[in-house]
Write the structure tokens for this entry.
Amino acid sequence: MAQTRKSRKRGSAETRNVLLTGFEPFGGEAINPSGEIARQLHGAVIGGHRVCGALLPCVFGAAIAELKRQMRVTKPALVICVGQAGGRAEITPERVAINVDDARIPDNAGRQPVDRPVVRGGPAAYWSALPIKAMVAEMRRQGIPAAVSQTAGTFVCNHVFYGLMHELRRQKKVRGGFIHVPFLPEQARAGQPSLTLETMTAAIGAAVAVALKIRRDTRSAGGATH
Ligand code: PCA
């Protein structure tokens, strides 16, 4: 009896939402695969959790503000942010977020911070809280090209990733991290790698399922070769 009450209470305290964010197009592109993936998976039920897809502006500061707003609204158990990394050939869960904004091009509001901290006085870096090796292994098992990435860059994606992990210090029960995806076929210029939206959506769906199932990452070779 007491047992039942206890487990019911625990059940109600944990939310069953997954927040999945993508970005609006940037850098002169007409489309961003990450935003399309979030749209595709919005409302899907994976591992007993409902996916809440959301779009973030590709703007320093405003992107983290919108992420936090979405977290307040959806109260997720898991947050996975996705962004486009044109030129990459694989789906790449990111290992680490670093405390620097160093933009090669202006963001969508014309801001171009150079060598600025994401959070003044914050730690140099945060590790992803996602089972990145297990996610890569599952994607590869499904025939999807995937590899762990050792850098999320220093543009708005790393900025959001760092902002997310900084926020999760205060929300200990919530796990989260970042995944970069390649161009869509219509974005790729001659010789550039790409994946279809269907493949990328399946990949991120698989990543969500693994993250919900596995709390302690597996130890396996899954890093990128570069
Ligand atoms: N990719 C950029 C920002 C938005 C996006 O989709 C990046 O890698 O920083």
Remarks:
- The mean pLDDT is 93.
- The chain has one domain: 15-225.
- The chain is about 35% helix and 15% strand.
